[in-house]
Amino acid sequence: MSDCEIPRESLGFLLQDATRLMRRRFELRAADLGLTSSQWRLLVTLMKRGPQPQARLAEFIEIEPISLSRLVDRMQEAGWVERRPDPTDRRVRIVHPTERTKTAIREVKDIAEAIYADALDGLSSEARQNLIDALRRIICNLSQTTETTDEC
């Protein structure tokens, strides 16, 4: 095997492949709503954290601000979000979910939960919990500095 080949059993490949397949399944099942996985991530962020400035949303969903601006443009045209001026800083626009989002969020959550159930099918309750615990540990390990890893 050459140095640039990644074995299919590598952690990174497996995590990326699982994520890609879940994203694809979501996009197929949510197509009737007209939502992509990026749009869904933005809506979930707004519903969990409340209205946010565009720059903060870009940080939360880990995309470039210009990409977020285009995403919000499309979502605003489709009636999912609206931009309002920040009352304390006229340069800033705050992104708010619309009533359409608030109404559809339960349906979108149901789609996501069904996909998670499909993904975990055939795993025992113990295996599911072990997987979740292991992923939380990985996230914690990679989120902390070497000095604070024990705090997880």
TrEMBL record:
It holds the Pfam family MarR. InterPro entries: HTH_MarR-typ, MarR/SlyA-like, WH-like_DNA-bd_sf, WH_DNA-bd_sf. It comes from Rhodobacter maris. It comes from the Bacteria. This is DNA-binding MarR family transcriptional regulator. Residues 8-140 form the HTH marR-type domain. Transmembrane segments: none annotated. GO terms for molecular function: DNA binding; DNA-binding transcription factor activity. One of its GO terms (biological process) is response to stress. Keywords: DNA-binding, Transcription, Transcription regulation.
